[in-house]
Specification:
It contains 9 helices and no strands. The protein is an all-alpha fold and 197 residues long. The longest helix is centred in the last third of the chain and has 29 residues.
């Protein structure tokens, strides 16, 4: 029971306090790409959560070995890329074998979600802040759900950001950055102005 409780607490922290978009701007370009089409949010979100959790589990065991060395910071990026690439290939092969008819539609979600700064950044954040396996899983789950929540917040107002009522110089991308900044300040206020980097 303590295992699940620890996962839930860390996941809530990852969703609200350590939100990758609002606290570190990891994955902003992917957020803009996905938020244009509201029907893709939950399919994409499921892929992001899958990748953040699965990479977190494998990174827990990899970090135990890597942290034994004093120069592990040199090897970590390469090991993390290999872990993400391995999970990506295994996922594509399983989808191709099990869901061959829908593989063409699902493949684009896998590509975009696997090679996303939020997924890659979650591995480094887990390595820095987490110690136990439940912490790694919970933080990966929280980062994935927090990213989906951020995409949803942008998708809800995406049409209004490109509205004719908005002055031309602010329409679209500039207003989107202002909107993300305001949301980031709101989330920053939830943590009491003590964001850890």
């Amino acid at each position: 029971m303590e295992f699940i409780t620890q996962i839930i607490i860390i996941a809530i922290t990852g969703i609200i306090i350590e939100n990758t978009i609002f606290s570190r701007a990891l994955g902003t370009s992917t957020l803009i790409l996905i938020s244009r089409s509201r029907k893709n949010i939950f399919g994409f979100g499921a892929c992001v959560v899958y990748f953040t959790v699965s990479t977190s589990i494998i990174c827990y065991f990899a970090d135990k070995k890597l942290n034994e060395s004093d120069i592990s910071y040199i090897y970590k990026p390469l090991v993390y890329v290999l872990i993400l690439g391995l999970i990506y290939i295994i996922t594509l092969l399983c989808l191709w074998k099990l869901f061959y008819k829908t593989f063409g539609r699902m493949r684009k979600y896998v590509h975009i979600s696997a090679f996303n700064c939020a997924v890659f950044g979650s591995m480094f954040l887990n390595s820095k802040y987490c110690i136990t396996l439940p912490q790694y899983i919970g933080h990966g789950l929280g980062i994935g759900i927090g990213f989906v929540l951020a995409v949803y917040f942008v998708a809800v107002v995406f049409d209004k950001l490109y509205s004719e009522n908005v002055p031309y110089s602010f329409r679209g991308y500039p207003l989107l950055l202002i909107y993300l900044g305001i949301l980031g300040m709101a989330f920053y206020g939830l943590i009491g102005h003590e964001l850890t980097f």
